[in-house]
Amino acid sequence: MYKVILLFAGLSLALSSCKECGPQAEPMVSVQHIGRRTFQSITALGAVNDSVFRRIDSDHYSYQLPLSLLADSTTYLFVSETRVDTLTIRYRRLFYDEKGCGFVVDVAPPEERYSNSDFQTIFKGKYTTFEEVWIKYGSYVGEYRNYADRPQGVVVTIYDK
Amino acid sequence: MYSSKRFFGIARLLVLSLAAHFCLGQGTLPDTLSAKPFRRDASIGLDVFKNIPPLLLGKRYYLQEAFIVEAITRHRTHRGHYAQFLVGYTQGAILERLNHIARQELHGWYLKGGTEWDITGQRGYGYFGVAGVVASVTNRGTYHFPGRTFGDYVADYDERNNLGFGAELSLTRNFYLSDRWLLRWVFRGTLVFRMAGDVQPYYYPGVGYAPNQYNSILSGGSTLQLHYRLR
């Protein structure tokens, strides 16, 4: 009898999934910078409070940057010793009531023809002054079984000379 | 089907009164207790409690700016069995901040119809009831996401006429205030399935407070109804 109960309990645990309700404020973009330069500062156009940017350690090559909830694009300024680079991330904002979460905010690719798992590549001159930028529009909301499958949100990789 | 003339007829009331007097009045119970439940066949009532907690508790109560009207008719179908119908209207606002909803205003109506059985040996003091429920709600509200870097996002939502169907179980205690006036203390549990609507309603008219529930909404409650008994 105990074995049957244990079996059911084990199966229930194995088949159960967790739900990620997404950010409760501005969604954060994970930015990976691949290049030799480091930035003196990073900021964004339209920012009314730069405290999140002041906490960024410019010696590192990965950052968490906020997306604006008030617009469908956010432009970041990457200030280095010799120049200022820009990167504009375009997206669609989604606000809806998710079962078990209440109202959530999520982000989708700017064009509906792209899915959340597609990488989009943008090159110098269009939305950025970096050589090449890869953007993956992962969802912030959803169910997952393993921690590795957890919704990642938007992930950006900057390739810089 | 009974005609109203037959149902509410004076002759029937006379017979019932005499029967109650001769049959029940001769028992071991006091005459006042045994005769009163069978003296009247029908009553009309109003809910006299649901507006009091919002008035007394103010912002400490989950439903504010509340206005609730419930009218009830009840009539006897068999000895110890009653049919009852309830029509209600609720409006109010929920100001409690829940899952980014800063304010939710609601209004809606509901109908309940069913039957109840005397569970106190036909003495007319305790009833178990079953009823069907049809309800509709319109929710309007504001949701808010804080944006520390670029500014907050605030937007409105509006969901109209979410229709729901369900059932209700109830236990009721009768208090006979006089020959004419009857106070009923009702405990109920209600389950309604919503046919439409994406936003969780928090309060569903006819069901009650139901946070974090979506398509199936379950809640319970207790209230007082004041009935005027008809001849």
Summarize the structure.
Chain A: This is Lipoprotein. Chain A has helices at 2-15, 51-54; strands spanning 18-20, 28-34, 41-44, 62-66, 73-79, 84-90, 92-98, 102-108, 119-123, 132-137, 142-144, 154-159.
What is the level-2 CATH architecture name of the largest domain in chain B? Beta Barrel
User: Which percent range fits the helix content of chain A?
Assistant: 10-25%
Which of globular, elongated, flat, extended, rod-shaped describes the shape of chain A? elongated
Structural class of chain A: mainly beta
Mean of all residue-level pLDDT scores of chain A: 84
Signal peptide (chain B): 1-22
Protein name (chain B): DUF3575 domain-containing protein
Keywords (chain B): Signal
Protein name (chain A): Lipoprotein
Description of the structure:
Chain A: This is Lipoprotein. Chain A: It comes from Rhabdobacter roseus. Chain B: Keywords: Signal. The complex is a heterodimer of chains A (161) and B (231). With 161 residues, chain A is mainly beta. Chain A has 2 helices and 12 strands, in the order H-E-E-E-H-E-E-E-E-E-E-E-E-E. Chain A starts with a helix and ends with a strand. The mean pLDDT of chain A is 84. Chain B is mainly beta. Chain B has 2 domains: 1-39, no CATH class; 42-230, Porin. Chain B has 4 helices and 10 strands, in the order H-H-H-E-H-E-E-E-E-E-E-E-E-E. An 8-stranded antiparallel β-barrel of chain B has the order 1-2-3-4-5-6-7-10. Chain B has a two-stranded antiparallel ribbon with strand order 8-9. The longest helix of chain B is centred in the first third of the chain and has 15 residues, at 10-24.
